[in-house]
Amino acid sequence: MTPVKGFSRGDRRLLTLMYLTGVVQGFAQTQAVNTLPFSRLTFGLSEADMSQVLAIARIGALLAIVFSTMGDRYGRRRPFLLAFVMLFVASGATAFVPSTNVNVYTFLQGASRMGAAAVGTLAVVLLAEQLGPENRAWGISVYAAAVSFGSGIGLFALPVARADSESWRYLFAASFIGLILYPLLTSKLPESKAFKIPERRISPLAVFAGAQAGVFWLLAVFSLLVAAFSVIVVTFALERLVNDLGWTTTQASAVMLLGGTAGGIGFFAGGRMADSLGRKATINLSLLMGLVGGLAFYWIENPVLVVPAVAVSSFGSFAAIPAIGAQRNELFPTGVRANAVQWLNSVGVLGSIAGLTVGTITIDQYGLPTTVAMLGAGMVLAVFVMAAVPETLGSQINAQGPSLRST
Fold this sequence. Notes:
This protein is an all-alpha fold and about 400 residues long. The chain has a single domain (about 10-190, about 205-395), classed as MFS general substrate transporter like domains (Growth Hormone, Chain: A). The protein has helices at about 10-30, 30-35, 35-40, 45-55, 60, 65-75, 75-95, 100-130, 135-155, 170-175, 180-190, 205-210, 215-235, 235-245, 250-275, 280-300, 305-330, 335-365, 370-385; strands spanning about 395-400, 400-405. Helix 8 (about 100-130) packs antiparallel against helix 9, helix 9 (about 135-155) runs antiparallel to helix 15 (about 250-275) and helix 13 (about 215-235) packs parallel to helix 16. The protein is globular.
């Protein structure tokens, strides 16, 4: 699957740096989910209790707005590098949390979420502002695929966690390896060509009531609904296979890797579709696939059908990512772009917290399958919300902001 248009030498260098960043980021930021079946036993927590812990930790991602505000005022590069360090230090330090103090675990995972959210936002902004409209979504898909690949490495390494009751800590400690990339980023990562130091400071709250408020709130509702469904599907996938269906850790990891690898094609397929057919059509088709696959995964117990369900769900979820990333950056002007994207990501975090909160109430009483089905109704509503958002295919991004193609 190739981009609509080729990349320049500068584009390829930026993509290489973002790909490497994505790999180590993906490994570090998913350890809380990957190790959930083991860490929750160490802390003596139930599934509902762990859902609450992860919901609280996600509040840290809301504070990532500090980095995006810096990004809109002083440039994208410096806050990106600062958030990069925070992510790996906090994730690595989680390995040393005493089993008697889940509050420290929650705090460090909150800091890790904060760093990961800021890195993810600013990485996509850097890519969107420096790649052309013909290959912008496909370029973002390269970064997104790298994050997924890093998560896959974490799954591949998951058998380490079953060596004994405390071995899950080794996977968190391995996050420190990501810091090796920092010197390369400081010397090779360029500042965005589209960024110009603003003549006046723009409030980080400007998108709530400014000229872009209408489209912002549409995207906010969309993000909330999608995140509430997705967080339960992703967070409890291994829990369902290992503790609900009785699969071994090796079997569960293999299924997630096989299904995820097949679904990983969705990153590049989604990027290609978004750059050729449009952002909205790609997003909605992808959402429906993610919904069908997610529901099937939690309602089907036949092992033969579990892998296809994971593949369909993963393909849909992955294909939506580059289209959504390109669309969000294309809809807002340069002076508020990082803040707008981060606020939308923060709304997604609120959606995740809402989904986990629903899980806290319903999982023990009704079970995971019913909880997933209840939240799946929001995905259908999200498709209708997206229909009201402007199409941005062909938008030019420069220092003055996006120039939308009329549709």
